[in-house]
């Protein structure tokens, strides 16, 4: 029984059991809802509260789920859970207000104004407004116009939403206070979710960084807009970092505390140092070349299942696009990578092929085949269509395929792999998506 299967089974069981308990609580609670609208609003409130605990667990980045499911897939779940929270947060108060309005025979607006004068209700409505704001800034149209740092800072409001939601539940959650068992269950569930969040997003990172005391050892420009940062510290082998993984990097004293970026390791960890390589596209990444030697480093991680550990066979295809070469380069260096290895590196021009010299040296040492695919994409230059990809790697269906690059490239490769009928278990993608 594989680790991903066990993890999915555990997640499914967790959801089914808790939803069953929530429905039992709803049925036992009975009144005071006076009509179908009030009843619907109360049930939606239970769904909302539970969905918020699920979101907290997804944001906690539990190591077990990260290793078994992968951070990219978990981030996708986080996104869809976020939209579920949004709709529940809108519908729950709407149905509750409508229920009271119908019962009291007054207008919806008048009822909303009356209820909002009660502090617990007001806190809940503020939480709803913050959720709407965060979701509005997360849709693709708005997201493309925000820097990663600004988007991340806005999402920190979700922690305030959690606090407001808990306070609101404490005063308004009649279904949670039916008896001792419901109280123990409900607040135990929240204690588990918040405990996981605090442990893995605050306590563990603080302990690790206090132990390892990481500092900038060297800053090496790789091109006009790409730079590598070498980081050293104490007992780095205890981090358990692997080639292909990434950290969340902060540089206290050089950047503000909320400026954080997920950068992959661009070299296989050796227990003595870590290296990240980034392209200057945001405030944090663009400022890396100005980091002083000896600057403090705060790293949260390692994260990601984009590692050789998940390889099922002995033949491997590594596909990199642009700056997505960083985890691919570290995978090629991994001592555990053996067998038949082919590397495809897609760039616009030779000048954009950062770390190419290192790739060539590693390919020579590993006996791997390296193909640099250059030129702008056009009707005559589409190396990742199914026929062209199969021509480059005829035995692609028997290989584990690792792909990392811009969204358009990664999407095209994944589509071609599906068309070529490469088994899903052999496909590994790093999409650089991350929940805040």
UniProtKB/TrEMBL annotation:
GO molecular function, one term: metal ion binding
Segments traversing the membrane: 7-28, 40-60, 80-101, 121-141, 153-171, 183-204
Any one cellular-component term (Gene Ontology): membrane
Cofactor section: FAD
Pfam family, one: NAD_binding_1
Compartments, as annotated in UniProt: Membrane
InterPro entries recorded: FAD-bd_8 (IPR013112), FAD-bd_FR_type (IPR017927), Fe3_Rdtase_TM_dom (IPR013130), FNR_nucleotide-bd (IPR039261), MRET (IPR050415), OxRdtase_FAD/NAD-bd (IPR001433), Riboflavin_synthase-like_b-brl (IPR017938)
Keyword Transmembrane helix: yes
Domain FAD-binding FR-type: 209-309
Keyword match Flavoprotein: yes
Keywords assigned: 2Fe-2S, FAD, Flavoprotein, Iron, Iron-sulfur, Membrane, Metal-binding, Oxidoreductase, Transmembrane, Transmembrane helix
Membrane topology reported for the UniProt record: Multi-pass membrane protein
Cross-referenced PANTHER family: 1,2-PHENYLACETYL-COA EPOXIDASE, SUBUNIT E, NADH OXIDOREDUCTASE HCR
Identification of the protein by name: Predicted ferric reductase
């Amino acid at each position: 029984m594989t680790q991903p299967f066990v993890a999915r089974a555990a997640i499914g069981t967790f959801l089914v059991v808790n939803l069953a308990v929530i429905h039992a609580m709803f049925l036992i609670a009975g009144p005071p809802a006076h009509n179908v609208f009030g009843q619907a609003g109360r049930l939606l409130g239970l769904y909302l509260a539970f969905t918020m605990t699920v979101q907290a667990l997804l944001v906690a980045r539990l190591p077990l789920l990260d290793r078994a499911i992968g951070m990219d897939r978990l981030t996708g779940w986080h996104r869809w859970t976020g939209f579920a929270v949004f709709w529940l947060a809108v519908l729950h108060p709407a149905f509750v207000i409508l229920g009271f309005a119908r019962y009291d025979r007054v207008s919806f607006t008048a009822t909303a104004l009356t209820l909002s004068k009660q502090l617990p209700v007001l806190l809940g409505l503020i939480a709803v407004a913050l959720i709407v704001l965060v979701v509005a800034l997360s849709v693709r149209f708005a997201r493309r116009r925000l820097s990663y740092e600004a988007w991340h800072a806005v999402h920190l409001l979700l922690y305030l939403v959690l606090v407001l939601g808990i306070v609101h539940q404490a005063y308004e959650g009649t279904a949670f206070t039916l008896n001792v068992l419901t109280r123990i269950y409900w607040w135990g569930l929240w204690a588990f979710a918040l405990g996981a969040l605090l442990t893995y997003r605050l306590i563990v990172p603080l302990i690790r960084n206090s132990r390892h005391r990481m500092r900038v050892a060297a800053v090496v420009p790789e091109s006009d807009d790409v730079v590598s940062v070498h980081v050293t510290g104490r007992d780095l082998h205890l981090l358990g970092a692997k080639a292909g993984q990434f950290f969340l990097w902060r540089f206290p004293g050089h950047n503000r505390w909320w400026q954080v970026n997920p950068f992959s390791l661009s070299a296989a960890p050796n227990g003595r140092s870590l290296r990240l390589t980034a392209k200057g596209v945001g405030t944090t990444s663009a400022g890396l070349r100005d980091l002083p030697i000896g600057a403090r480093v705060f790293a949260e991680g390692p994260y990601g299942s984009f590692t050789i550990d998940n390889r099922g066979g002995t033949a491997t295809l590594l596909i990199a696009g642009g700056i997505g070469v960083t985890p691919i380069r570290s995978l090629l260096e991994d001592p555990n990578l053996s067998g038949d290895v082919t590397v495809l590196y897609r760039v616009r021009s030779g000048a954009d092929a950062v770390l190419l010299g290192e790739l060539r040296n590693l390919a020579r040492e590993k006996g791997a085949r390296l193909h640099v695919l250059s030129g702008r994409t056009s009707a005559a230059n589409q190396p990742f269509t199914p026929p062209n990809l199969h021509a480059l790697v005829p035995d692609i269906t028997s290989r584990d395929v690792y792909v990392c690059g811009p969204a358009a490239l990664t999407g095209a490769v994944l589509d071609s792999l599906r068309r070529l009928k490469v088994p899903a278990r052999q496909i590994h993608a790093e999409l650089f998506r991350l929940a805040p």
